[in-house]
Amino acid sequence: MIIDFLKKNKALITSFLLLFAYFIAQKLLEHAGFNTNFFDNYYFDHAVNNIALGKGFYLENFNRHFFTEHFYPFYYLIAPLYVIQPTLIWTMTIHALCLILTLIPLVKFARFRFPNAPYAPYLVMAFSFFVYVPFRGMNMTGLHGEIVMAPIIAWVSYYLAIGKYRPAILLSFTLPLFKENAIVLLIGIALFFAYKRLFRNGAIVFAYGLITTIIVISIIMPNFGLGDYRFVKNYSYLNATSITDVMFQMISNPLAVIRHIFSGPVIGYLMGLFALVLFLPIFSPIMLVGLVLLCQNALSDFWAQLHFLQHYSAPLVPIILMASIDGIGYLKENSPNGFNRIKLVSKIAIPFFVVLNLIFFTFFEFRF
Question: Collapsing DSSP states into helix, strand and coil, what is residue 196?
Fold first, then answer.
């Protein structure tokens, strides 16, 4: 049975292995080319090694525990590998695996959505790699929590899209293990359930997200020396002093929020995420899963949150790509004229985007 599966999917498996090799090679070249405190993963790698040495998740360059920065308990699962051999090859390998595991549910959904189009999975792989540069951009950063969140939310979105809600909910319960702001994705999942009128499922996911967020930010992180949650400053234009104050200032000062939304950096960020997929996610409810995270980034004035190649947007990548697959399927089934217009535009836009990708690869990405 396994042999039959391998033979049947030989081309796909080969494609995944080639992509994995590329991502590993890129990480190794990144390390060899820069070899600085950030680009050799010191920020994560050394702290993980400290776990293996019994020092805890300690940042020596910051002289504090990592949980004062972010809630990344998943690194404790990586630490045993450093007992075998302390090398950043572990984090690089896991990083590359995260990208492959993010792509697999997209390929599976393409097969599900277009069962009579055997080429659909290959088109999705080619588009993700050669056109949608935010996907490759996920490999040009450290192993942040968002990078590990990406495959989890990709599989959650896949199960939601095909109507298998139980595994989607169970997987969503793991999200708080990867970063303290997992609630933004859990609220998005709850919104999807609300759209489907599955209010009980939505309430369960929302309540779980709220409870875990309060525990992590109000109890666990302060015990490691965290005073105020410092990432409030990522919304400096609001002059807020706490997370709740950020929300209050947004409500009480809507003009400042509107001015920010229509600013150049925000428009550029949204175009970078959605123009490459011809805004197809607007035709799919799957995009609801990433709506709150998208708002969290777009409402920030911190440059990295408004850069579509930074780790802050990594969980949005599979959501946008899956919503695009679903969106094109929706147009094909419900709006033939719209589908034909998208086909016409794509014949012009995709070659143009490929050229832009080549320029980007040559002058920026190739340097890694």
Answer: coil
Cα Rg of the chain (Å, integer): 21
Q: Which residues contact 353 (CB under 8 A, 6 or more apart)?
A: 131, 276
| 63-74 pLDDT tens trace | 778 888 888 999
Are 303 and 110 contacting, i.e. CB atoms less than 8 angstroms apart? no
Which tops the pLDDT comparison, 247 or 3? 247
Chain position carrying tokens 């319960």: 173
Q: Tell me the CA distances in angstroms from 171 to 156, 157, 215, 337, 351, one per residue in order.
A: 6, 10, 19, 38, 37
Q: What is the pLDDT of residues 99-152, one digit of tens each?
A: 999 999 999 999 999 998 889 999 999 999 988 999 988 988 888 999 999 999
- Report which DSSP code applies to 148: H
Report if pTM > 0.70.
yes
Dist CA 13 CA 310 (whole Å) = 28
Q: Is 173 helix (H, G, I), strand (E, B) or coil?
A: coil
- Nearest-CA neighbor of 126 among 12, 9, 290, 28? 12
Q: Closest Cα to residue 147, out of 110, 93, 183?
A: 93
Q: Which has the minimum average pLDDT: 42-46, 234-238, 315-319?
A: 42-46
In SS3 terms, 312-365 reads as HHCCHHHHHHHHHHHHHHHHHHHCHHHHHHHHHHHHHHHHHHHHHHHHHHHHCH
Kindly report, residue by residue over 325-341, the tens digit of the pLDDT. 999 999 999 988 888 88
Position of tokens 């490929």? Answer: 354
pLDDT at 360: 72
Q: Rounded CA gap, 251 and 76, in Å?
A: 39
Question: Of the candidates 105, 50, 106, which has an alpha carbon nearest to the alpha carbon of residue 78?
Answer: 50
Q: Are 250 and 299 spatial neighbours (Cβ–Cβ below 8 Å)?
A: yes
Residue 354 to residue 335: CA distance in whole angstroms: 27
